[in-house]
Design brief:
By secondary structure, the chain is an alpha+beta fold.
Length: about 350
Amino acid sequence: MHPHQQAPYVTIRAIQPVVAGLKELGYNTESIFNKVHISSRVLENADDGIPHSVMMTFWQEALSLSGDDQLGLHVAEATPIESLGVHTYASLSSPTLREAYHRACRYQRLIHDSTDLLFKEGPDEGILQHVLPDGRSVPRHPAEFLVTLWARFGKLISGENWAIRLVCFTHNAPKDISEHQRIFQTGLQFNSGRTAMHIANNVLDVANRGADLGLSGVLDDYAGRLLKQKPRLNMTSQSEHVRQQLLRMLTGGSPGVEEVAEALNMTVRTLQRNLSREGVTFSGLLNQLQHERATQYLADPAISITEVAFLLGFSEISSFYRAFKRWTGKTPAEFRVKKAIYFQSPDQSRN
């Protein structure tokens, strides 16, 4: 696949572990490939790629075949580590989980051309977060697959010290969350505007008994060469530029498309055309950004709801309330009270 193509692509490294996990669960992956009209031979070249839309269709067909409403969780649990590639081995050989997650972020571009994996350092915790620069949310099953893999890596590296503070998803809570409880054993926050996992610093800094600095150095060199051979594509940069510009302009007023286009030195028509090529709209980007930031600001009790509205560009508190109700089904005050929807673990629920 070539960099000049317009649609976002994922490398075969992204689909290999999904296929491997489905096979471990006993599903006929060849029939899924036939349904999405690509050959299973694409798996032979990890550096090749498929359109992101095809990857999402592959997940949908796998869901239809399995009938498993917890498919993302179960595939991630079943995926053989050896199917996850050089970037995973480099991470697993790191001296601590903190360094492992930093490596995972560094090598995210080996998997997906247009998404980012971010690790945010805090005074008492770190937050690993998957970010789509085009403003869309990760669909439920790929998101749950991804976060379950994060948890698997965490447990492999930190061992008996492994614990998660909070897991966040953008999708609504499914009817049955017992598998989420079993796997994550922590607070769960759905419809949160982000795909993220919070881990305490004392867990992040536990020494990795399986660390191999010599091996990680060799793998870093190899992965680094792969990155140099795979420059970042420009096809999603317009939406990311718009998001960054919106962040700079939000406070004190909601910027219009005309203001953003002028700040980016282009016409409104050109800006909208470029976004359209990426499958997004200006209003969609603005809404997603405001949604994400709203849930983050409301998690901090030191920031009043009026301040949150101002920081997000709403001139009237009532407008913010209506928008937030549309995004989450709750008012900002209700969301703040119930910002983390904690569920008892299966063991606790039997007490």
